[in-house]
Amino acid sequence: MEDNGGEDPVNNNNDTTVSSEGSIIKVTVKTPKDKEEIAISEDASVTQFKEEISRRFKAKQDQLVLIFAGKILKDGDSLNQHGIKDGLTVHLVIKTAHKAGDGASSSTSCTSQVGSSSGSSSGPSSAAHSSTVGSTGGPASAPPQTPNILTGFGDLSSLSSMGMGSANFMELQQQMQSQLMSNPEMLSQIMENPLVQNMMSNPDLMRQMIVANPQMQQLMERNPEISHMLNNPELMRQTMELARNPAMMQEMMRNQDRALSNLESIPGGYNALRRMYTDIQEPMFSAARDQFGNNPFSALGGNSDGGVQPSRTENREPLPNPWGPPSSTNPSEGGGGTGTTGSSTTGSTNPSVSNPLGVNSASLGNGMFSSPGMQSLMQQISENPQLMQNMLSAPYMRSMMQSLAQNPDMASQNPASSPSAGTNPAQQLMMQQMLQMFAGGNASSQTPEVQFQQQLEQLGAMGFINREANLQALIATGGDVNAAIERLLGSQPS
Amino acid sequence: MLAHVDSKASHSCVKLVGCPLGGGPLLIITGNCVKVPRNFRLLEELEEGQKGVGDGTVSWGLEDDEDMTLTRWRGMIIGPPRTIYENRMYSLKVECGPRYPEAPPFVRFVTKINLNGVHNSNGVVDTRAVSALAKWQNSYSIRVVLQELRRLMMCKENMKLPQPPEGQIYTN
């Protein structure tokens, strides 16, 4: 190891500013984050320089890597050798102890939540890749029928469950999900985990994971739309990017809102929108609300405290409570997922911030979305409320809806088999029950007549004169005008 | 330090003939653009490299301080955070030919890296893969190239590529 210009034996490594040999030069040491000026003897060795730096930057010497003019300064060199003179800049990199590249650190923080260190398969992510694939294939079928689209994602926990045993597998997933939803930070943390990112950047892998879920398979069989979405790699990639990036998700949702409002201008599109809204969104939102306390998408949108709120995003308010007082905004529509007959009275509701679709429940739509696909989806959902909740929590559900919105053709391609009579009473009932269950104890304190005042008026305007029957139907459908109409019509032989 | 100023301009426009004393740059004005001679440019870049112009994530300098032709350079890229390249330092060789800065430099990695656009066998950077090289302009510099390579490391398609163990270098 070279010593500094060693004519002065006293001049050992403690030398900082005073040296009898050589003059002091001031060298700027620059890290990506900050910059310090260090005075050092121009004959000093790199080691001495590092000592000084370690003092100043409070880092260990062996963590320091110095770069000058494109070369790494080795400990045995001298500053002179590299031509380091007064006023020049040396770049410093402080090697941190944990490397995020291994996925070890960022995973430890979500260990407690996920119940596993998702990076527990330490080592190169490619190895973890295969082990993840293997593990999702297995335990995905093992646990009981939890229709959890995020099963694949949540199966990160199965990495550990391979060892730990999956006693509370479901709870674990539920917990993780609700925590994920309520804590965008953790979500982004998990998303940032290179392992997760690695997984999510592989559309095939994601697709496999999703498809491996038997519930999902069932769903897919019944709903070509979903399989369409899954089979479209571009879309998958997009949605995974979305899931990965909450900020982007937010932007995406905003764009979607805009796109949806554009749909309004298409003839028939407005109705399609309304249909879609009442069929899909409302029950989902009301469903999710109960579980998560508010609009889960607003939580996803980084609504929590301290989140950076870019000014370009607009809609942060949760959607109005459809089960609340009907006077304020659109009254509740249970979304019976049915086609309708009857005239279409187009109401006009200006799209407000909280009602981005400008949906007016008074207007009836044609059955653009009442394809068997949609219906079976609804049926599926009604049969298993859990599924809905979990489907909802999948961030890319939103994209699916977007794709549906953008491809109303796709939906209408499905042969529209007698939509009006499509939903048999059993389904209807189940749907209502489910929705009421979601509404929980949120029943209005008003009498049904008052509560459904507006709906009654609508029904009356449509020509259903029998107020009693209307009221019954409304009660049964929980205020859904369309479903009530079905009911009313269904009571007559069609 | 430098006695010879190379000005390989072959444009048939107004030329300022006459060499200022002391070997200063000979500016040749062609049309409406000013072309700075090669060595002057390279000296400037050398100085920038030593002064640490930029954000501190790349570094460059002469491979050999005695190299009068200012041809062979060394570069260093600090792997960007939140990528697989994080905490690694990538050493490069940059060769600025006689037609620099009209022509882009040749760049090759010394430290082994798995990056789209870099040959796996020898670390040579494919000119077509790096936009700064493919669409080279003479206002670009070594720094620009290094920074562009660093940006490439942050691309989705690159940021998770499995990397060889740290510290390996290309031998050919």
Summarize the SSE layout with pairings.
The complex is a heterodimer of chains A (494) and B (172).
Chain A: E1 24-30, E2 35-41, H1 46-57, E3 64-68, E4 71-72, H2 79-82, E5 89-94, H3 104-109, H4 111-114, H5 125-141, H6 151-154, H7 156-164, H8 169-182, H9 184-192, H10 194-200, H11 203-212, H12 214-222, H13 224-231, H14 233-244, H15 246-263, H16 269-292, H17 296-300, H18 372-383, H19 385-393, H20 397-406, H21 408-413, H22 419-422, H23 425-439, H24 448-451, H25 453-462, H26 467-477, H27 481-490
Parallel strand pairs in A: 1-5
Antiparallel strand pairs in A: 1-2, 3-4, 3-5
Chain B: E1 28-30, E2 33-35, H1 38-51, E3 58-62, E4 72-78, E5 89-95, E6 106-109, H2 131-134, H3 142-153
Antiparallel strand pairs in B: 1-2, 3-4, 4-5, 5-6
Q: What topology, given as strand order, has the largest sheet of chain B?
A: 3-4-5-6
What topology, given as strand order, has the largest sheet of chain A? 2-1-5-3-4
Helix/sheet category of chain A: mainly alpha
Largest sheet of chain A: 5 strands, mixed
Q: Please report the total strand number of chain B as a whole number.
A: 6
Per DSSP E runs of 2 or more residues, the count of β-strands of chain A stands at 5
Task: Report the C-alpha radius of gyration of chain A, rounded.
Answer: 31 Å
Helix percent of chain A reads 40-55%
Helix and strand composition category of chain B:
alpha+beta
Mean pLDDT of chain A: 59
* Uncertain runs of chain B: 1-32
Please work out how many helical segments of chain A DSSP would assign.
27
SSE order of chain B, one letter for each helix or strand: EEHEEEEHH
Q: Say what oligomer this is.
A: heterodimer
Task: Give the amount of beta strand of chain B, in percent.
Answer: 15-25%
Main location (chain A): nucleus
InterPro entries (chain A): STI1_HS-bd, UBA, UBA-like_sf, Ubiquilin, Ubiquitin-like_dom, Ubiquitin-like_domsf
Protein name (chain A): Ubiquilin-4
Subcellular location (chain A): Chromosome; Cytoplasm, Perinuclear region; Endoplasmic reticulum
